[in-house]
Design a protein that fits this description.
Helix 2 (42-55) packs across helix 10 (166-176). This protein is mainly alpha-helical and 202 residues long. Strands 1-2-3 form a 3-stranded antiparallel β-sheet, with helices on one face. The termini are far apart. It is globular and about 50 Å long. The protein has helices at 25-33, 42-55, 60-65, 67-73, 79-82, 87-93, 103-123, 126-130, 147-158, 166-176, 187-198, and strands at residues 2-3, 8-10, 16-18. This is DNA-3-methyladenine glycosylase I.
Length: 202
């Protein structure tokens, strides 16, 4: 791997990518196939919001490594099931080495599942609500938050969601395609641009 500049590196396949994914081989597949491509599936959107909240204070590498463990532990992030978790289930999760065992974050996922159900009742889907915060900034940025992520965070908190600060909200927006922050020159940026143009916004 060769670094071109602070934003890009050349992988072993000769393709230029965002420099952040050079940290580990595991990032490359995630970067190439998932990060930034638009998502409208409610389960996937809820999963990502939960995983970003777990990532707070940790590296994304830690969360990505444990992602399958999280999916197993939280019923594949089916928020209708997660909303029914009780204290016994919380204690079970706190013993699960396959996830990040943080009581506050576990309780936040359960709380947020209940809020997600209410949101589906109000908007028809999580996707319909979340895609109101689509950001079509033409150039990629190196910011950690944006006006839209601040607004999303504020509204989610108002609705009772937890562990959804502006930085978490922005990381979610980047990952789920609400904004395209692939670096200029990254070969995936154009693929994401095309996917976002073809995306039917809910």
């Amino acid at each position: 791997m060769d670094q071109i500049n602070e934003n890009l590196f050349i992988g072993n396949d000769g393709k230029a990518r965002c420099n952040w994914c050079s940290a580990t081989e595991g990032y490359i597949d995630y970067h190439d196939k998932e990060w930034g491509f638009p998502v409208s599936d409610d389960r996937t959107l809820f999963e990502k919001l939960c995983l970003e909240s777990f990532q707070s204070g940790l590296s994304w590498r830690t969360i990505l490594t444990k992602r399958e463990g999280f999916r197993r532990a939280f019923d594949n992030f089916d928020f209708n099931k997660v909303a029914k978790y009780n204290e016994s289930k919380i204690n079970e999760l706190l013993q699960d080495e396959g996830i990040v065992r943080h009581r506050g974050k576990i309780e936040a996922v359960i709380n947020n599942a209940k809020q997600a159900i209410l949101m589906v009742d109000e908007f028809g889907s999580l996707a319909t609500y979340l895609w109101r915060y689509r950001d079509d900034t033409p150039e990629p940025t190196t910011r950690a938050t944006s006006d839209l992520s601040i607004a999303l965070s504020k509204d989610l908190k108002k609705r009772g969601w937890k562990f959804v600060g502006p930085t978490t909200a922005y990381a979610f927006m980047q990952a789920m395609g609400l904004v395209n922050d692939h670096s200029e020159g990254c070969y995936v940026r154009k693929l994401v641009e095309q996917a976002r143009r073809n995306f039917v916004q809910p």
